[in-house]
Design a protein that fits this description.
This protein is of the alpha/beta class. The protein contains 10 helices and 8 strands. A 5-stranded parallel beta sheet has the order 2-6-1-7-8, with helices on both faces. A 3-stranded antiparallel beta sheet has the order 3-4-5, with helices on one face. A hairpin with a 2-residue loop joins strand 4 and strand 5. Helix 8 crosses helix 9. The longest helix is centred in the middle third of the chain and has 22 residues.
């Protein structure tokens, strides 16, 4: 099967980012973190003094800002113009403000165009792409050969993210739960749509989660080769 597109959705703390990168690396495919694109736009708006509540101004920025996504799964990166902002877009202060940008419907429409173009380019150049985010399986790439929703219990997600962020579960709860609540108003990422495979990582180790996703991808490749 040529130009395999893998779409992986799910909330924070399910392991989808780490699994997506390694799944792409396993097949020497490109990797696209669509959530980082919204974070980059948030950073750009704040850097340029654009009011995040000015939806039209933020939407215009989403069309014109010079976003550059590094798509090597071994070393993904995010830059605006020549400036790398990998660390900046993960800062808690920015994370708290991403929802204002990610729930802007015009921004989402503009970003979908960018994401689809990047997925097509990566699939063409490397033979495949693994794109992860919150509405990739249903809105951005509903025709992808592989569509997976990774989920986990709230307790498991909070425990994982608090460990990653070196913070308490309660401190992490506001980031995770509030962000999920805001994003769920514009995208569906908690329930698998028709044709989307569900991988519940609540009781899985990281290695088991990765194995489950790789198996689904391989099944799709095998099925494609038999056609």
């Amino acid at each position: 099967m040529n130009q395999v597109r893998v779409a992986i959705d799910g909330p924070s703390g399910t392991g989808k980012s780490s699994v997506s990168k390694l799944a792409a690396k396993e097949h020497s495919w490109g990797y696209l973190d669509t959530g980082a694109m919204y974070r980059a736009l948030t950073w750009w708006c704040l850097d340029q003094g654009i009011d995040l509540t000015d939806q039209q101004a933020v939407a215009e920025a989403s069309r014109t800002f010079d976003l550059r996504m590094g798509t090597d799964p071994s070393a993904p990166s995010v830059a605006v113009g020549e400036r790398r902002i990998d660390a900046e877009i993960r800062e808690p202060a920015l994370t708290e403000q991403v929802a204002a940008v990610a729930t802007n419907l015009e921004v989402r429409a503009n970003m979908r165009g960018r994401q689809r173009a990047l997925m097509q380019q990566l699939a063409r150049e490397t033979g495949g792409v693994v794109a992860e985010g919150r509405d990739i399986t249903t809105v951005v790439a509903p025709d992808a050969q592989v569509r997976i929703l990774m989920t986990a219990s709230e307790e498991a997600r909070l425990a994982r993210r608090s460990k990653e962020l070196s913070s308490t579960v309660e401190a992490t709860r506001a980031q995770i739960v509030d962000r999920d609540k805001a994003d769920s108003t514009v995208s569906q990422f908690m329930t698998a749509a028709d044709g989307v495979r569900l991988v519940d990582t609540s009781d899985l180790t990281f290695e088991q989660s990765l194995a489950a996703v790789l198996q689904i991808v391989q099944e799709a490749i095998d099925a494609g080769e038999r056609e």
